[in-house]
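step: validate -> pass
step: tokenize input -> pass
step: predict -> running
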Amino acid sequence: MERSDIQGSIVTVIPQHTILWAVDALVQNLSADEITSLRVRSGEHLAAIITTAFMFSTPTEIDSSGGADLVFDVAAASDSSTAKMLTAGAKLAAFEAKSITGDFRRFDAQLDQMRQRGEDTSNTWHEVTVKSANTILNEARPQILRARDQLLKKVAPTDSRNVFLLVHPLDQLAIECVDDNPVIGHLLDPIDYLDDVDTLWVLWVPDHLTVWSTKRQAWINLIFAGTLENERPIETGVFSLLQTAESEFLTKTGNVNGSPYMFAFSSGEDGEYDA
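step: predict -> pass
step: emit ->
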């Protein structure tokens, strides 16, 4: 990728430890019922971790009775860069989380069932087609619009409405995310159908995070693995920083069922990648 390709891109970076702070903040401030209501297979816990980190505050509400999935007090998030993308004068910022359609989580659940029965899973396999990020977003448009429609019903027009989309690479693998460059927003097409929503967050699990800002009419790259001066990178082993944070969240909340988002790719001798 030429350096000129990314000139003009908007990038927001937070320190790596903020993601781990977000995990602790959620565990300390949410009730057991609220934590349970975050559906792990749908990735709602990841949406909560990410938004908490970038809003610099924990949600005041978690959907348990037909409300938005995550609701934040905008005043508590006023120091965050995210607040600049929200509706002027909004007191609340509501997020509706959706995970993109795919077969991997069903496949992963079947593996869990096989293991519980003591069956061998070593010869199982899952196939995914590599696509462009724009193709994936275009195919996800119906899901994005459903989230928008739910927000229109649940959230007052004076408050901020936001969609959070999770893309599991074993459901939909974007070629742009295969590279090591964390900045991919300049490669994404503008979103022209969400005028009544402030932002569309897209988490390309596990490393890339892009946000379409309706106010700024631009894609913003959010990087959550920044390293401060004289700070050592957090040891993550084969996993990413977000997966390390997820592992801590699952452990601290007593989740023993695992997560389809805890995976790693390894390169075999034939050059192919295995998950």
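step: describe -> Confidence is low (pLDDT under 50) at residues 267-275.
step: cleanup -> pass
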